[in-house]
Amino acid sequence: MPVALLALAISAFGIGTTEFIINGLLPDLAADLGVGIPAAGLLVSGYAAGVVIGAPLLTMAGARLPRKAMLLALMTLFLAGNLLSALAPSYGVLMAGRIVAAFSHGAFFGVGAVVAADLVRPAKRASALSVMFSGLSLANVLGVPAGTAIGQALGWRAAFWAVVAVAVVGLAGVAALVPSRPRPREQSLVRELSVFRQGGVWLALAMTVFGFAPVFTVITFIAPMMTEMGDFSPGAVPVVMGLLGIGLVAGNLLGGRMADRAVLPAVYISVGALTALSAIVAVTAGSKQAFIVAIVLFGVAAFATIPPLQTWVLDSASQGPALASAANIGAFNLANALGSLLAGLTIQAGHGYAAPAWIGMALGLVGLAVTGLVSLRVRRQAVQTDADRKVAAEDASGDVLEISQ
């Protein structure tokens, strides 16, 4: 694999750490800034909103830039957002810093996915994407726990300074290792936007939303599920989360390998496994050993969905991949919001802490149904293409016959 993928993975590690690091620091941060926990929690929602809004806006704004220049600009923006967060004198300034950093998130992953895919031969595109996105999965395993520990020991600002350091390394890596290539001649904002006229692109985005939504129905409420239903001690939660993180890393790499062989079957397998494991997590919530095995396998299935889903969007929007890729990052974040929202409403309705996993199964079934629609569309297009070729061949043979006569 090209060494430039390492620079993209390091940048992804920093971005992923920033997204989730706030969760473990909310009590200290709220006390220091003089706000309540619910208000501090809006820093998570504000970041997610920034990703969804910023991804298409910044990708469109940079449509005429060479892709390396776009990545450098986005990492600079990300660095500035985290500097603002680390220095924030008030809650409002911290929220602004979070939103600034979030704006770079979706566009970086969208453009970075296109760059990663272009660094390798077509047969290895999904594996290249999995290497880049391994930075995101490692952020959950290493970055967030380490950042939380730093924040708890040295203050929440220290955690953001640590992310600033990672951002500097990522920026330097992109500058030094990602090859400079001229902007593709065919690349333009009009061309990028034109892909959204295709029904296949919207189906691909829907496949991401519903295929990935089960992940956060379970992960968002895994701690109370463990302590309230499985009789785990609070100290066991970080250990199990670490095991889940290992599953995420393994699944990301596995998903890349599967998608290199056949993208759409990889989506079927990964989303199908995620759907089944959501139900298994619900069933095993009261048994410690079985739950641990189920949640690790759930992690494998969860991130095995990312490379094939991202690769399918790139394939579906080959005429304007950067904007569609960024939109798919927004779709992943919409999946996060949808999954956690429905799971929370289910718990509030009094259905218990295992109920979110059943919601995950239901969302996964919708994801499989959308995947079925995608497959049907592909088969119809293949039949139409074959028919057009036969007509063209018959016309050509008729012309030859007329000439010979």
From TrEMBL:
It is a multi-pass membrane protein. Its main location: membrane. Signal peptide: none annotated. This is MFS transporter. Residues 4-379 form the Major facilitator superfamily (MFS) profile domain. One of its GO terms (cellular component) is plasma membrane. InterPro entries: MFS (IPR011701), MFS_dom (IPR020846), MFS_Efflux_Transporters (IPR050189), MFS_trans_sf (IPR036259), Tet-R_TetA/multi-R_MdtG-like (IPR001958).
